Amino acid sequence: STEDFDRLGALLASRPTEETLPVARAFAHFLNLANIAEQHHRVRRRRDYEREAGADPQPGSCDEVFGRMIAGGLDPGRLHETVTSLSIELVITAHPTEVVRRTLLQKYKRIADLLAALDHSDATPAEREEAVDALRREITAAWETDEVRHDRPTPLDEVKGGLVVFEQTLWEALPRYFRVIDQALRKHCGRPLPAGAVPIRFGSWIGGDRDGNPSVTPDVTGSASLLSRWVAADLYLGEIEALRSELSMSSGSEELRRLAGDAREPYRAVLKDVHARLTSTRTTIEAALGSADGWRRWKSPFADTNDLLAPLLACHRSLHDTGNAMIAEGRLLDLIRRVQTFGLTLVRLDVRQDAARHTALLGAITRELGEGDYAEWDEGRRQEFLLRELRSRRPLIPRDVRFEDDEHDVLGTFRAVAAIDRESLGAYVITMASQPSDVLAVALLQKEAGVGEPLRIVPLFETIADLRGAGQSMKRLLEIDWYREETGGRQEVMIGYSDSAKDSGRFAAAWELYKAQEEIVAAVSGAGVELTLFHGRGGSVGRGGGPTYLAIGSQPPGSVDGRLRVTVQGEMIQAEFGLAGIALRTLEIYTTATLDATLAPPSPPRPEWRRTIEGMAEAAARAYRSLVYEHPRFVEYFRKGTPEVELGELNIGSRPARRGGAKSGVESLRAIPWQFAWTQNRLLLPSWLGTGEAIAAAGEETQRMMMAEWPFFRSTIELTEMVLAKAEAKIAAYYDRVLVPPDLQPIGESLRERLLRTSELVRRVTGHERLLESNRVLRRSIDVRNPYVDPINLVQAEILRRYRQRPDPTLRDAFVITVNGIAAGMRNTG
Q1: CB-based contacts of 777: which residues, under 8 Å, 6+ apart?
Q2: Which residue stretches of 527-606 are H helix?
Q3: CA end-to-end distance (rounded Å), the chain
Q4: Is the pTM of this model over 0.70?
Q5: What is the mean pLDDT of residues 142-153?
Q6: pLDDT of residue 830
Q7: H-helix or E-strand spanning residue 812
Q8: Closest Cα partner for 108 from 157, 169, 158?
Q9: Helix axes 355-368, 405-419, angle to 10 degrees
Q10: pLDDT in tens, 85-118
Q11: Annotated active-site positions, please?
């Protein structure tokens, strides 16, 4: 009750920090353990589906989706062809709201393994007791471990943290994923998954994303590329050693014997050379990492991935030729599929930089050449200069030119791209792209740096203005003959969910993103070029997060078409890949959702629906901006009523919270801390503000029809419903009472009234009496968690009050613990 809540708040406020902190720690640990148990239960549910003979397959599984499509009349040959040609890439990113230390994540993994051991029905009483004792020890060890990072992580720390998930779960989950697809194709199409088909690959931004992060230098990017290769070599070595033990037979094909010479055990002889080169890879990388620029001198013992793959395929063919197909399709096939997916690098590293940084460098170059300032030229003159220089054979940059530090860093990045082994790198992503010249500038700088095989260039459109111009910008870019030829018939375009939502609120941004995708698809396909859309999704709904199947299925028709690239934010890596069973389910969902969106895309919205939602989006943006950007005291209220300022001081990410070192204002604040701060006080403002006004601006009957027949609108409302169910007005009101001066509190009161009004309007559209009543699992999860999150919020508010009066390290560490606990309870946070 409210009375009990207030009494608890008063009690915690009256006690010293050393007494209230254990309360927050206890609830935080409970929530982390609850997350482990919930993930384990999801794995258990999947196993139950697989175990029950004759039962319906799990929704979203390959078995269920393939079977549904065939039953719906799809030709099995077309299904097989589409599945085997899928191209999905999941790109992991670092994330400043991943507050859990790597040490604790490792302990949580061991706890999950022990829960799995307790599920074994054949365990003896002694074995169960031993597992329970081990579980108690791990939980106690986690309790005794310091949750606080006392030093800000470096980008290379973040690289190591991102690679853990490959070592712990994805390495084991990937072969199982391939077998799941193979079995479903055999069952429903009568044909297996062919050799060489790789539906999913992995990329990374960690160590390559320098947008606003001065800590990511060329040396960091070079070292990051080696770290992932070291982990890959280490994992492959374990598999090669196991294969050498297994493939002890003396018979072999003529091809294999030519490779093995006169060896009595030809498989072992061939694999011995592979083992030696992998060992050399690992050893030489360790030596190279001993100095900051050691990556510049390192040379791989393998020419490329095919150099590693070739002897494995030869062994595979030999086993088939000699009647040992059963052996060939076991551990060896699993390794072959890993190599085809992970290559020599596990992940390909993208490089990301702001378009303005390229403009500044080119401005310095043109001034040095006496041609004026590139940064001041209009688009036509920029394109003319860039195309002239791209076609020219002479060097552009004078040898003796002296650059400012920022300009030197940008040029250094391109020279690093030229020096790093090409297989280690993915795309070059341009933040805040808006014009064709932004793309041509990167092409020119790659040429001038001597990049032999240029990285594909990916413009990222993210602000509302840039999204509205994205289609026209791509059309003009692809009308340039030189550039269209350079694409090789393929173009990737990234759309950003974070800054667009910060610009105008989530509802309006969702519609702008939808329209931008339609226009980009029309522009690129009109040029006869194959498009891959790269979705920059975050963990929170306000940054494009939410259930994967729902998100992919609600994209405009034609925007997926068998190809998808999407970021997996740091905070979501553990949630989606933290356990092998969860990782398997996540990979399967990405596959089937992409397949569904390709073969059964939604119909385009009716013209009257477009008119309706256009008016709704305008009302939503107007309501959002009138408060966030136009209210004279909103920023002051935001900085008092949330822990935004204090979050910027914590050691939870290598990137600054603000662009360009700015100190105030929503414009300069990065979208991630903007979302994270509102999640901590449980108001979740960016994810719903403006939606109530949007709903009020349209007819209820029309909206119900849109809910029933238009996946995009349904997903937009359902995700808002989820956010509203997680929001807690009473917690936000408590923060106001404790932290906000009386003259600012009316802003908070108004926001909470709007929250309640928006909840009522959303219930009207969905026809629900209670938020999420049609999703009982999620509704129960929220109901169970909230009572455990509430006390942590009360402690955090009191700690913030004391810290603002007298900052000291003890209170800051206490604050970190509460941040960790609230993040654990809220799950998708930033």
Answers
A1: none
A2: 548-553, 570-577, 580-599
A3: 29
A4: yes
A5: 77
A6: 39
A7: helix 809-826
A8: 169
A9: 100
A10: 999 999 998 754 445 666 777 788 888 888 888 8
A11: 95, 502
